[in-house]
Amino acid sequence: MDPDEALREVARRFLAAYAPVDRDDLARWFGTTPAKAGKLLEAIGAEPVEVEGTPLFAPPGGLSDAAAAKPSRVVRLLPAFDQWVVGATRQIEHLLPAGVGRERVYRPQGWLTPVLLVEGRVAGLWRHERRGKRLDVSIEALKKLPAWARKGAEAEAASLASYLGGELSLRWDDV
Fold first, then answer.
1. CATH number of this structure's domain 3-68, picked from the four choices 2.30.29, 1.10.8, 1.10.10, 1.10.3470
2. Which helix (DSSP H) or strand (DSSP E) does residue 148 occupy?
3. Nearest to 48 by CA among 15, 70, 92
């Protein structure tokens, strides 16, 4: 592949995974300067969008897709250092419940806390520990969760226990 086209493809894939972003997000992730990241966003036709007063970029054609999207009811237990959490570093305040500080996810010495993701937003934190044949999973909800989200989180924990070959022991620490 042509090196310039390869760079553009990387930028497209970054936007597909993390948008909306600004040029500093791309620069930080890709290890380049904000100016070069801005030129790359321009080269791929990234669409400018404003989110809560902040100018950002979406993938080409992504704004109409986003406007037509319906809530997906997707619930995931993301592990520590999951790439989604790494990529959300600069925008995390928009993805956390009101009053929850970023330090709950991004801890000292670069440690990233496993998160409960509900419809693309951080709704809780979680951890697990093996104890013989048992897998203890503890979920701390950072806001009141609807029943469907709790069931989704419980299904994720059950899937993890099955994968790791343990019997699930689940505890909720609610708001």
1. 1.10.10
2. helix 147-164
3. 15
